[in-house]
Amino acid sequence: MPAVVLLQTPVFHAYTFSIYVDWTSMSPPPIFARALAGEHVQIAKTQDDSPSNVNVAGRDEILVAVRADAMHENGIWLWAAWTTCGSRP
Questions:
Q1: How high is the pLDDT of residue 1?
Q2: How many domains are there within the chain?
Q3: Given a cut of 80, is residue 62 above it in pLDDT?
Q4: Which of 24, 36, 49 is nearest to 78 (CA)?
Q5: Which of 15, 42, 85, 87 has the CB geometry, 3.0–4.6 Å to 61, for a possible disulfide?
């Protein structure tokens, strides 16, 4: 059963969400992150770059952090943020 959390805050008109993914066979977080990265998705490289409504202000991309779950060998957590008022037309 997936776990999903969606938060909307009035600060910077952004959305954040967290998703837990549990695989029958483990895909290491770096491989999973590369599969997500693309034209509209930027992967957070460091803890300082973690997705937040502040870090996505004015961006066009969805900022995503991919972390292994500490308690479940095959679990991965995604934390993402995107703004509703970036520079998109």
A1: 57
A2: 1
A3: yes
A4: 36
A5: 42
Q: Compare 31 and 13 and report the one with higher pLDDT.
A: 31
- Please tell me the distance from the alpha carbon of residue 80 to that of residue 65, in angstroms, as a whole number: 6
CATH classification at residue 31: 3.30.360.10
Distances (CA, A) of 36 to 9, 25, 82, 85: 25, 18, 15, 22
Q: Phi and psi dihedrals of 31, rounded to 5?
A: -70, -40
Residue 89, pLDDT score: 43
Please report whether residue 89 resides in a domain. Answer: no
- The whole-number pLDDT of residue 50 equals 85
pLDDT in tens, 21-46: 887 776 777 888 888 888 889 999 88
Q: What's the Cα-to-Cα distance from 25 to each of 1, 3, 11, 55, 68, rounded to whole Å?
A: 16, 18, 38, 32, 13
Evaluate whether residue 15 is within a structural domain.
Answer: yes
